[in-house]
Amino acid sequence: MLAYTYVERGKFEMREKPLPRLIDPRDAIVRVTLGSICTSDLHIKQGSVPRAVPGITVGHEMVGVVEQVGPAVSTVAPGDRVVVNVETFCGECFFCRHGYVNNCVDPQGGWALGCRIDGGQAEYVRVPYADCGLTPIPAVVSDEQALFVGDILATGFWAARISEITPDDTVLIIGAGPTGICTLLSVLLKNPRRVIVCEKSLERQRFVCEHYPQVPVVSPEECLDFVRTLGNHGGADVVVEVAGGDDTFRLAWECARPNAIVTVVALYDKPQVLPLPDMYGKNLTFKTGGVDGCDCAEILQLIAEGRIDTTPLITHRFPLRNIEEAYRLFESRSDGVIKVAIENTEHNAKLF
Ligand SMILES: [Zn+2]
Ligand SMILES: [Zn+2]
């Protein structure tokens, strides 16, 4: 089968690989019907994900159809359309039982697919702990509607969930890339008094204005003044930092009012400074980390009800065979690209 592969730093290539097989009784094999490219894939390519294993098939955002399940799998069956979760988790350890699935202590736990084990920019993928890692897609939800549920939408939904947003709040979201927009959609579901988006790219500012005209968009330069004026108490009640730029962490806590919650979803290239003397007396609460991707069923239900729609993020489509071209576009951020969909309709390889 076709499998897009991490060869070495700076090099991915399409390879022909054998079909995946069930290894553990809790595994499933999924025929990938639609996938995407994530910024984390680019980080692997750049060599900035040390735990990524050369030779693995990349890709961790995908939906598909279950082809085979191990004898211990009980919640999905062959023929089910499913979302694949970016995180692998056992469902049984202390962290999983508390919903902190990002910290699953299983050796395979965490971001394994497309990083440490073969992922989904391929015709088929083996998913460990399939009962946890696969969520059935309701019949009324299309593959494109479900595409981001297991990764960037899970991230935005989790960020909104942990940010303790109330109807009185002014919420500032820093960053309107794909995850920023997923965060925006999830924050809007909480019906806060006001949501403000801060984004430096003019193209992405325009994207937000066009699709979410009720949401004011400001540049990083305008942001602090704007939020101080509009927020009722000298700043935002909740700040969600999704940008990960050089100065966006500072911007996040500066824009927060005293006693605000600052949720840091962003992944930074460099260490960030927490200048405690400057923020003394501001009494901020910081929440940081990587997604606990355990809300996929709830998110799919919201999509089925028409309350979340991420399809405008899909700006370009490519067949798996031409994924190279999709990477070039996604990396160059040209032609207004937000996300690409990788369509997989050939499936020349047959499992049975
Ligand atoms: Zn990702
Ligand atoms: Zn676990």
Question: Would you write up a description of this structure?
Answer:
Helix 8 runs parallel beside helix 9 (248-255). This protein is an alpha/beta fold and 352 residues long. 49% of the residues are buried. The model has no long low-confidence stretch (mean pLDDT 96). It has helices at 39-45, 94-97, 130-133, 143-146, 152-162, 178-188, 202-211, 220-230, 248-255, 276-279, 296-304, 323-332, and strands at 2-8, 11-16, 28-36, 62-69, 81-84, 87-88, 110-111, 124-127, 134-136, 170-174, 194-198, 217-218, 236-241, 256-264, 285-288, 314-319, 339-343. The radius of gyration is 20 Å and the shape is globular. Strands 3, 4, 5, 8, 9, 16 and 17 form a 7-stranded mixed sheet that branches. It has a 6-stranded parallel sheet with strand order 12-11-10-13-14-15, sandwiched between helices. A two-stranded antiparallel ribbon has the order 1-2. The protein contains 12 helices and 17 strands. The longest helix is centred in the middle third of the chain and has 11 residues, at 152-162. Bound molecules: zinc ion (2 copies). Residues 38, 40, 60-61, 86, 151 line the site of one zinc ion (ZN).
Specify the CATH architecture of the largest domain: Alpha-Beta Complex
Q: What is the number of independent domains?
A: 2
Shape: globular
CATH superfamily of the largest domain: Medium-chain alcohol dehydrogenases, catalytic domain
**Main beta-sheet annotation:** 7 strands, mixed
The radius of gyration computed from the alpha-carbon positions, rounded to a whole number of angstroms, is 20 Å
Q: What's the CATH class label of the largest domain?
A: Alpha Beta
How would you classify the helix and strand content by structural class? alpha/beta
Structure ligands: zinc ion
The average pLDDT is 96
Strand and helix order: EEEHEEEHEEHEHHEHEHEHEHEHEHEHE
Which fold name corresponds to the CATH topology of the largest domain? Quinone Oxidoreductase, Chain A, domain 1
Strand content: 15-25%
